[in-house]
């Protein structure tokens, strides 16, 4: 006959196992950028970078991901966006992308943040991203792009595609190609960066300070080449 204390011990052990599993799930999610602590940190970095305005001249708005924020840098003001000519305002959020599901931090896709970002009244909008859409369905990327273009209708827009970050290299060609096709459909200049060999941090996803500088300089040059001083984005 079983000892009457065994069920209690088993139940207690089950609770401990469940608790440990929950804690492990929280840790894994946070490490992946999906946990509450990580999301809160992303929000703090986004506000810190948004408070920084660089340069003078034509007002430029950058809507982007962790690269525009400068995640991994000691000084967020040195993110690649600072290399763009003009008075540059950055509205970035780490982990975000064109698709709504790129981030697990809530409504932070480019579309969801665009209306508020346009409050700076830019002459040019530069949208940078795609790396965080690496595991998203093509239909989700298309939907997010369509909604973003509706938000930006009437504005001059340039879309900057993903670079070939080693951690997500296998997914870049698909995302890059689809973004280029979508930009063409909406009459928006598309700047490819997947050909660049950049310096990355140990995570193989984010740029070093030199990587940011090179990326920003190349993007600035390529934006000049596609001549963004053209009619605003058209609707479909």
From TrEMBL:
Residues 62-213 form the SGNH hydrolase-type esterase domain. InterPro entries: Ester_Hydrolysis_Enzymes, SGNH_hydro, SGNH_hydro_sf. GO terms for molecular function: hydrolase activity. Keywords: Hydrolase. Pfam families: Lipase_GDSL_2. The keyword Hydrolase applies. Gene3D superfamilies: SGNH hydrolase (3.40.50.1110). This is SGNH/GDSL hydrolase family protein.
